[in-house]
Amino acid sequence: MTNPLVSVLIPCYNAEACLGETLESVLAQTYRELEIVVVDDGSRDNTLTVAKSLPDRRIRVIPQANRGQSAAENIAFQESRGSYIEFLDADDLLASDKIERQLALLEGVGPDYVASCEWARFYTATTDAIFEPDALWMDLDPVEWLVRAWTGHSMMHGAAWLIPRRIIERAGPWDERLSLINDFDFFSRVLLSSRGVKFCQGARTYYRSGNVDSLSGTKSRGAWESAFLSLQLGTAHLLRAEDSERTRRTSATVFQRFAYEVFAHEPDLSERAAVLAEELGGSNVLPPGGPVFAVLTRLMGWRRAARWRQYAYAAGYQRAAAGWRIGRAMKSRRSPGRVEHA
């Protein structure tokens, strides 16, 4: 196929502030054989209006009742026709030649590889983005890619991939039970359904950070349970592909990090994750913290050290709040506009 169709899939929910810029970055692509499938997941703002405001025949907008990002991704894929798929969150951006570069690479190696690319975070403008290479910026087989990503705490956000449709069909749909880190399960299946990752030097994407309303910022009990299930599914995919010392150690590290992260919020999930890490042979990854916390961890174990840190933070907050109230009261007494009555 000389000019294969590329489908850009954009699920969105309450994304009116960013969606227009995201769509413009797709319409500016130097590769023109595109379709853009926007699924509005029951937004309560003007997302749907923004999605329909650009007069380009390549854009199709599909509204649905709110069912979550995974369901919106599945609907977008089912409605798409492209031989290649670009997943794009409604607040992320593509460099203008991103798709053209990756497509040329994949067309040269065959339909059983996926393409990754350079990416960087930005907060307000893409000029803030700093592209810093890491251990994933190279050609890798699927298992090695996952081992490096999960042990090194690296990542490749969803928009950085360009994926042949046939690989996604082998991998299966997004798991609609999942919300937080649903991509951990999905993209591990995608990679393991391929022959490997081809890194496309020069192709770039921009990952918007600091959006408190994004799915990644959700930290409810249900979100933590989704994250835990996604970790269980993703590591199971890896271990089915290769059950070895390195993949078991990698999976143990995934669960141990999660145990550290959720201990203060959901101690029962933390304990379940720590048990799974031990069953897989344990991990030597250390809990995050400063020098004092590191010493306390060695002396009393990470759980007791984490509890101590929680108490210290709580006490510090209470002292700060008390000081603020006292200062406010004293300022009120000194105020020249205050009238004293006998």
Overview of the molecule:
The protein has 3 domains: 6-217, Spore Coat Polysaccharide Biosynthesis Protein SpsA, Chain A; 221-292, no CATH class; 293-331. The protein is built from 12 helices and 8 strands. It has helices at residues 16-27, 47-52, 69-79, 98-109, 142-152, 165-171, 182-192, 221-241, 245-262, 267-279, 291-300, 302-334; strands at residues 6-12, 34-41, 59-64, 84-87, 93-94, 113-122, 163-164, 196-208. The termini are far apart. Mean pLDDT is 90; it is low at 334-342.
Strand runs, count: 8
For the record, the CATH class of the largest domain is Alpha Beta
What's the CATH H-level superfamily name of the largest domain? Spore Coat Polysaccharide Biosynthesis Protein SpsA, Chain A
- Under the CATH scheme, which architecture of the largest domain would be assigned? Alpha-Beta Complex
What is the distance, rounded to the nearest whole angstrom, between the alpha carbons of the first and last residues?
93 Å
- The name CATH uses for the topology of the largest domain is Spore Coat Polysaccharide Biosynthesis Protein SpsA, Chain A
Mean pLDDT metric: 90
Number of domains: 3
Order of helices and strands: EHEHEHEEHEHEHHEHHHHH
SS class: alpha/beta
C-alpha Rg (nearest Å): 24 Å
Q: Provide the β-strand percentage band.
A: 15-25%
Report helical residue fraction: 40-55%
Principal-axes shape call: globular
Q: Give the oligomeric state of the chains in this entry, treating copies of one chain as homo and distinct chains as hetero.
A: single chain
Largest sheet: 5 strands, mixed
